């Protein structure tokens, strides 16, 4: 992509920019300047070139002692105001070019500088490639102005824009206890004794200082998080492990506050035992987490702690938050707490335990047992268990006529128990089959028959062993069956998702992509869904009549949030609506039946929608890239056409200019003809300069100009520009005043001369053909200052603001609008490319343009 001239300029400046470190405090006297000087002493001892640009010791002996040993740049004193303190001498600092300069009081308002604020001075130093250490308190940050005024009752006038602070390479928080700070104040270590009482009436109160300290901590943390995010780093990622316990809700809210404070991602995870549905309380917890913006994950595993540890190791999360609830001593006997088990496996993990603030009473737990004992058994499984028990009993009855050994009959019952546990869901039928099998064995095959009594010694132990063994076999078989079902389901899901991802690569149209995903979902879930790939176009089948609601579709598309059944938005709908896309951009919507899909199913649905989101995003990004490519080609064609036309126009215009000059020298021409020839000559000059400006701006935008500076004499540059300008405006008088010293600058000769010609042309536009242009060159503090004045109409206040703050060419007003079009925009751009600045102002005789660029001291 072709960079604009402004972007090109920013890249050039960024390569040479110094580094900025800010020492942040919450009040005067916390030790910002002292800490800055300490670090500067360390760098000075290491051999770095560190100087002091401006330091305010406020009469503090400890601070003054650290100043010794540093070179101090002479400060600039306000003219006519000797009682004021000196200001940072920016030109002297730039001329000295140290590695680091120390500048106190970042938010200071200048009294003797061309910049109104000190942070603007520091910006100039940074762009010169010099690093800066500086200090600031939180009350001087622009976004905190109202908050600080509310806390302290003081309307702080000196502030620094937050956007400027965000460019800092490092922010160090200087923090001490507010009580210690108050002791310093009372001891006279911050302000003189006569100012202590006034300070205590404003900022220096314990409650105010505590609140300011909290703001400083938050500001420092936020800045660090933003820097890490920009660098692709995340120092924190909060993981919340939830369970049906009420404390999980507190843990989720705590994690949200922590993640918001640190600007960090957070995930809510729940370990679900194989073969079981999500408990209603867990579903509520997950809905709360999704509402607060967390990523939710449901893991399958029978050992909660082991599964959670494996997930933490895989994701490498460093912060875990879990809820804690009180358990009875008998239940905990011989067991370690979950957090102890996790810490034993992951000793470096940071765990935060959130207590349950609303424990359930024993009576409520007792009343809740019937709900926990509620069983969900399918009729088919019951008949299978009954049939298996009857079949095994009949086989054992037949075995009575073959052998009298009961061990074989016990084995047949074990086989029946294994089959029931294997081919039914849950544990209940397996355990029930175990109990019934033991009873039938005693009743039918142990003497006395048809009685639960037994005469033979040892049968009691045999029954107990049989029951325990059968129970263990039933439980293990059911568990293995459930785990196998989960593994098969996960493998099937992964295979379907893999196939879907490959299929999505074969097409790139939204309708076809949506159709492939919709068919994969229907085949996997065996339930109908519809996918909107445009606001009024969908594929698939609507699950019910209630689903096709245009108002819901429009809401989800606009907000990018789920709606319908199971959500807090339009919960009365029978259908649910899931947005497809990424934050801030909805690319499609999935519609399903709220009764047919559980919460776990919806979480699985999101996995199916992820590859579709990526495919749709790729499609639209490709379209956007094609559009940009066409726009770029169109702009290039226009630019090429413009350059071609401009080149073709310059030749006839030059001929017209020469012809009019010859005709104007003919004294036989009438006054009217002379006036017409003069107008033609003037307009031709304007057209030639306009074409030259257009060509230069076009080349800057395309990046085709190779900007290479060489040492040039200022006098030579100005005389060459005057010569070219006089060829077009021979009647204009120009006076040049040069200093005795020879001044060199680093400049690109051609475009620098074009900048001067534009400024001369601007003087003619303001003063007319009878104008006199006065050029004065001076050298001050390492800067070559070229002042160009014309006698004529001065700038208006609106024009001055527009010229000095113009960031782009004003194509609508045109170059003919007295220099407010691309002409002066081009001049400002060229001045910045030379690390200088162009300022429009007035003098007593008219308008004035002042160009300041660094002098080249290597050629002096």
Structure summary, number of beta strands: 23
Low-confidence stretches: 1-9, 328-334, 811-820
How many strands, what sense, and barrel or not for the largest sheet? 6 strands, parallel
Rg over CA atoms: 41 Å
Mean pLDDT: 76
Number of helices: 29
Description of the molecule:
The chain has 860 residues and is an alpha/beta fold. The chain has a six-stranded parallel sheet with strand order 3-2-4-5-1-6, sandwiched between helices. The protein has a five-stranded parallel sheet with strand order 9-8-7-10-11, with helices on both faces. Strands 13-12-16-15-14 form a five-stranded antiparallel sheet. Strand 22 and strand 23 form a beta hairpin. The longest helix has 66 residues, at 599-664. The protein is elongated. Mean pLDDT is 76; it is low at 1-9, 328-334 and 811-820.
Write the SSE topology.
Elements: H1 5-15, E1 20-25, H2 32-45, E2 50-54, H3 61-67, E3 71-72, H4 90-96, E4 100-103, H5 118-127, E5 131-137, H6 145-152, H7 162-165, E6 170-173, H8 178-186, H9 193-201, H10 206-230, E7 238-242, H11 247-262, E8 266-272, H12 280-291, E9 295-300, H13 304-315, E10 319-324, H14 329-332, H15 338-345, E11 350-355, H16 362-367, H17 369-372, H18 379-399, H19 406-423, H20 428-445, H21 459-504, H22 510-525, E12 529-534, E13 537-540, H23 550-559, E14 563-564, E15 575-582, E16 585-593, H24 599-664, H25 671-702, E17 710-713, H26 714-728, E18 733-737, E19 744-747, H27 749-767, E20 772-780, E21 783-791, H28 797-804, H29 822-833, E22 837-843, E23 846-854
Parallel strand pairs: 1-5, 1-6, 2-3, 2-4, 4-5, 7-8, 7-10, 8-9, 10-11, 18-20
Antiparallel strand pairs: 12-13, 12-16, 14-15, 15-16, 17-19, 20-21, 21-23, 22-23
Helix pairs in contact: 2-3, 13-15, 18-19, 18-20, 19-20, 19-21, 20-21, 21-22, 21-24, 22-24, 24-25, 25-27, 26-27, 27-29
């Amino acid at each position: 992509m072709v960079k604009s001239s402004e972007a090109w300029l920013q890249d050039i400046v960024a390569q040479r920019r110094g580094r900025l470190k800010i020492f942040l405090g919450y009040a005067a006297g916390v030790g910002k300047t002292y800490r800055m000087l300490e670090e500067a002493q360390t760098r000075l001892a290491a051999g770095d070139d560190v100087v002091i640009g401006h330091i305010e010791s406020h009469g503090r002996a400890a601070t003054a002692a650290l100043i010794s040993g540093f070179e101090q740049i002479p400060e600039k004193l306000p003219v006519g105001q000797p009682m004021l303190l000196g200001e940072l001498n920016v030109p002297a600092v730039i001329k000295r070019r140290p590695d680091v300069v120390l500048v106190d009081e970042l938010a200071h308002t200048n009294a003797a500088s061309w910049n109104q604020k000190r942070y603007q001075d520091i910006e100039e130093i940074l762009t010169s490639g010099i690093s800066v250490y500086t200090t600031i308190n939180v009350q001087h940050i622009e976004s905190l102005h109202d908050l600080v005024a509310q806390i302290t009752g003081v309307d702080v006038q000196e502030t620094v824009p937050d956007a400027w602070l965000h460019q800092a390479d490092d922010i160090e928080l200087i923090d001490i206890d507010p009580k210690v700070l108050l002791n310093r104040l009372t001891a006279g270590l911050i302000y003189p004794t006569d100012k202590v009482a006034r300070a205590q009436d404003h900022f220096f109160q314990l409650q105010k200082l505590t609140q300011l300290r909290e703001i400083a901590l938050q500001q420092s943390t936020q800045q660090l998080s933003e820097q890490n995010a920009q660098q692709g780093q995340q120092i924190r990622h909060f993981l919340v492990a939830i369970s049906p316990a009420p404390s999980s809700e507190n843990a989720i809210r705590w994690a949200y506050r922590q993640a918001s404070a640190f600007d960090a991602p957070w995930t809510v995870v729940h370990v679900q035992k194989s073969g079981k549905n999500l408990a209603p309380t867990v579903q509520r917890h997950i809905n709360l987490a999704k509402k607060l913006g967390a990523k939710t994950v449901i893991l399958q595993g029978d050992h909660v702690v082991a599964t959670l540890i494996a997930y933490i190791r895989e994701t490498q999360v460093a912060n875990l938050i879990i809820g804690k609830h009180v358990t009875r001593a008998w239940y905990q006997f011989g067991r370690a707490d979950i957090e102890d088990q996790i810490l034993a496996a992951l000793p470096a993990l940071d765990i935060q335990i959130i207590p349950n603030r609303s424990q359930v009473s024993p009576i409520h737990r007792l009343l809740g047992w019937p709900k926990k004992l509620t069983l969900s058994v399918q009729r088919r499984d019951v008949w299978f268990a009954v049939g298996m028990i009857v079949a095994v009993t009949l086989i054992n009855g037949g075995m009575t006529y073959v052998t009298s050994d009961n061990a074989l009959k016990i084995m047949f019952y074990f086989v029946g128990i294994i089959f029931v546990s294997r081919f039914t869901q849950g544990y209940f039928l397996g355990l029930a089959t175990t109990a019934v099998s033991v009873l039938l064995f005693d009743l039918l095959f142990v003497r006395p028959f048809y009685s639960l009594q037994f005469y033979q010694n040892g049968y009691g132990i045999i029954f107990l062993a049989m029951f325990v063994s059968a129970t263990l076999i039933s439980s293990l078989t059911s568990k293995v069956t459930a785990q196998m079902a989960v593994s098969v389901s996960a493998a099937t899901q992964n295979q379907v998702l893999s196939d879907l991802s490959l299929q999505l690569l074969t097409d790139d149209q939204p309708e076809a992509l949506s159709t492939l995903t919709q068919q994969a979902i229907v085949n996997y879930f065996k339930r109908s869904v519809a996918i909107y790939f445009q606001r009024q176009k969908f594929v698939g089948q609507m699950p019910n009549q209630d689903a096709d609601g245009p108002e819901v579709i429009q809401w989800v598309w606009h907000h990018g949030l789920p709606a319908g059944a199971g959500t807090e938005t339009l919960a009365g709908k029978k259908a649910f609506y899931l947005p497809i896309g990424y934050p801030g951009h909805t690319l499609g919507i999935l519609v399903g039946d709220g009764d047919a899909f559980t919460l776990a199913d919806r979480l699985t649905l999101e996995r199916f929608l992820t590859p579709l989101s990526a495919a749709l995003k790729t499609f639209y990004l490709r379209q956007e890239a094609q559009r940009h490519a066409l726009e770029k080609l169109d702009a290039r064609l226009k630019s090429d056409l413009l350059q071609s036309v401009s080149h073709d126009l310059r030749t006839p215009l030059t001929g017209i200019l020469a012809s009019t000059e010859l005709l104007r020298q003919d004294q036989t021409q009438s006054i009217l003809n002379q006036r017409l020839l003069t107008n033609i000559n003037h307009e031709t000059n304007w057209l030639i300069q306009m074409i030259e400006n257009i060509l230069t701006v076009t080349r800057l935008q395309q990046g085709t100009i190779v900007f290479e500076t060489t040492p040039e004499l200022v006098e030579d540059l100005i005389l060459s520009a005057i010569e070219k300008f006089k060829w077009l405006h021979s009647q204009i008088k120009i006076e040049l005043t040069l200093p005795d010293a020879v001044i060199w600058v680093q400049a690109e000769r051609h475009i620098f001369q074009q900048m001067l010609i534009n400024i001369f042309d601007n003087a003619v536009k303001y003063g007319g053909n009878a104008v006199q242009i006065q050029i004065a060159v001076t050298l001050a503090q390492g800067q070559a200052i070229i002042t160009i004045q014309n006698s004529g109409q001065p700038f208006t206040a609106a024009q001055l603001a527009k010229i000095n703050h113009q960031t782009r060419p004003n194509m609508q007003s045109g170059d003919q609008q007295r220099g407010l079009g691309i002409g002066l925009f081009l001049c400002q751009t060229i001045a910045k490319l030379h690390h200088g600045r162009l300022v429009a102002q007035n003098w007593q005789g008219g308008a004035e343009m002042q160009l300041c660029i660094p002098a080249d001291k290597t050629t002096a």
